[in-house]
Write a structure and sequence with these properties.
Blueprint: E1 3-9, H1 15-26, E2 31-33, E3 42-49, H2 51-54, H3 57-61, E4 65-73, E5 75-77, E6 86-88, H4 97-106, E7 109-113, E8 122-123, E9 126-127, H5 128-133, E10 143-156, E11 159-166, H6 172-183, E12 187-197, E13 200-201, H7 208-215
Parallel strand pairs: 3-12
Antiparallel strand pairs: 1-3, 2-3, 4-11, 4-12, 5-6, 7-10, 8-9, 10-11, 12-13
């Protein structure tokens, strides 16, 4: 049962939920994942089972990622996703695909990004999102990331669907908020799906119930 598993994570599950489920199915304790997905997000999660594979975890973590996202403009969320407090923001008039493409150009290549306060980054040993939920004040350091490509999949105001290919460590929630700001308003992600990690594609993944059924035969 040791090996690399490509999981299509469902919404509502944390990445650790998937790890815990795999431990229960396989009976193997040494299991890790290569890149956290937020609970509301779906898509490709690489699960490494067994010591031989978990020791290469850092190599998988460094791979570029591809995401498909749905950005709702004219609203903002305290967490950058549907789980936060939603507030109204400035409505945009006459927003065209060309204006969006121009904004995308400004976020392509090497850019600086400040991770969201509701992230899994540890501050003094405590996850940032836990501090944020307690109302604690803290500052996260800006970092350099690389966005290989941004493209519009569909647009009908206020909903913008886009695809992003980027370096490891990129926060798509923050990228979406920054794009909305560049367009002159606020925005938050209503959907997020990871479709690729390096050479690994969501097309070759399985949902957890499919994996469980196969392994318990």
């Amino acid at each position: 049962m040791e090996g690399i598993y490509l999981v299509d994570k469902q919404t509502g599950w944390t990445s650790f939920d998937v790890v815990a489920k795999m431990r229960g199915i396989t009976g193997i304790r040494t299991i890790g994942h290569a890149g956290t997905l937020d609970p509301f997000a779906t898509g490709l999660l690489i699960i490494l089972v067994g010591k031989e594979f978990t020791k290469k975890q850092s190599e998988y973590m460094k791979l570029d990622k591809e995401y498909e996202a749905v950005l709702k403009l004219g609203k903002e969320s305290s967490t950058g996703d549907p789980e936060g407090e939603i507030r109204d923001a400035k409505e945009l008039e006459n927003l065209t695909r060309r204006k969006i493409e121009e904004a995308f150009e400004k976020f392509t290549g090497e850019i600086s990004q400040t991770p969201p306060s509701h992230s899994a980054i540890k501050i003094d040993g405590v996850r940032a999102y836990k501090k944020a939920r307690r109302g604690e004040q803290f500052t996260l350091q800006e970092r350099k990331i690389f966005v290989n490509r941004l493209e519009i999949m569909d647009f009908k105001y206020p909903i913008l669907e886009f695809r992003a290919s980027c370096s490891s460590g990129t926060y798509i929630r923050t990228l979406a908020e920054d794009i909305a700001k560049e367009l002159g308003t606020k925005g938050y992600l209503t959907e997020l799906r990871r479709t690729k990690i390096g050479k690994y594609n969501i097309k070759n993944s399985q949902k957890m119930d499919e994996i469980e059924k196969r392994l318990r035969k």
